[in-house]
Amino acid sequence: MPPVFTVFTPTYNRGHVLHRVYESLLHQTFRSFEWLIIDDGSCDNTEAVVEEWVKDPKTFFPIRYIKQANGHKKTAHNHAVREASGELFLPLDSDDRCVPNALEQLYFHWTAIPAENRHAYSGVTGLCVDQHGVEIGDRFPVEQWLDSNPLDIRYRYRINGEQWGFTRTDILKNYLFPEDIPGHVPENIVWFSIARSYKSRFINEILRIYYKEDVNDNIMNGSNFSSISPGLLYWKCQILSDDLSYFRYNFFYFLAEGARLTRFYLHCPDFQKRAYWPKGFWGKAIVVVMAPVGFIWWGWDVIRKKIER
Predict the structure, then answer these.
(1) Residue range 37-95, pLDDT digits in tens
(2) What is the rounded CA–CA span in Å between residue 7 and residue 64?
């Protein structure tokens, strides 16, 4: 019988912190899940560490370890979606933990949605704390749960910060990450695409423990721009093409996105130029109006990169 959840962990040279995921899964009160690890070309001891856990008699859940050539998180995610056996797909990063009843609560709230209505929902999302127990995201504007989508959450309710939850595996198979974009691809490219067709249930329950000291806070430093700009350019173009119905809720945000589009375009001049222009008139107009700001922003990035050297 297939498990309810596939818990997916992408990893790259994280053998020293992967135990956090394993230990938190050992303590889950809900037991119908598999752990699918996609190793994105690690050269540390990750494989040996996982082999010990597979052999350990206290490991009550199946562990599947797949190693692939390094292709960034986007390819690891797509690989995992294709391999997943569970109905519900739950990403859990290689340096984080989840609370003991995380899967139980996620499944409880999922089954609380009437069966005849679940086809319209993609999943359930909850809250996060850091390793010190401090909440690191805004709470949803309800006491218990809210049926909405990530676009409303971002633009209409202006909820920011870390959130965590699962997505139906069958939906994800139709919304894979674009793999032809080099380097890092923002996850919201997928989540926002799904949000345009499906609702989610958002719950004010803390489910994930997010370790801040292991986060790369310098992803936007000058040395990274060549690898992150193509994905960011693609995302900004998507926002200005498909999300302008939310302009009235946060127009400063969309103006800034117009400037960012020019900024990231200038960082990757060899990238596909067709990705530069949004699809509609108003998206194009925002880019034109904000292009001078984007140019200045790009210039400051160039100066900062020289300073960092």
Answers:
(1) 999 999 999 999 999 999 999 999 999 999 999 988 999 999 999 999 999 999 999 99
(2) 10
DSSP state of 285: H
Residue range 5-214 forms a domain whose CATH class is alpha beta
pLDDT for residue 212: 80
Residues in the chain: 309
DSSP state of 257: H
Handedness of CA 228, 159, 146, 104 (dihedral sign): positive
Beta strands in the chain (DSSP E): 5-11, 33-39, 63-67, 88-91, 97-98, 121-130, 145-148, 163-168, 199-210
Report phi then psi at 139, rounded to 5.
-80, 155
Annotated domain spans of the chain: 5-214, 222-308
* DSSP annotation of 270: T
121-130 and 163-168 beta bridge pairing: antiparallel
Report the alpha-carbon distance of residue 29 to residue 103 in Å, rounded.
7
Rounded distance, CA 254 to CA 265, Å?
17
Neighbour-count burial for 69-97, b at 16+ CB within 10 Å, e otherwise: eeebbbbbbbbbbeebbbbbbbbbbbbbb
CA atoms of 174 and 178, how far apart (whole Å): 11
CA proximity to 50, closest of 84, 12, 22, 80: 22
Q: Which two tokens stand for residue 206?
A: 């803390």
- Over residues 169-208, the pLDDT tens digits come to 999 999 999 998 888 899 999 999 999 999 999 999 999 9
User: What is the per-residue pLDDT for 165?
Assistant: 97
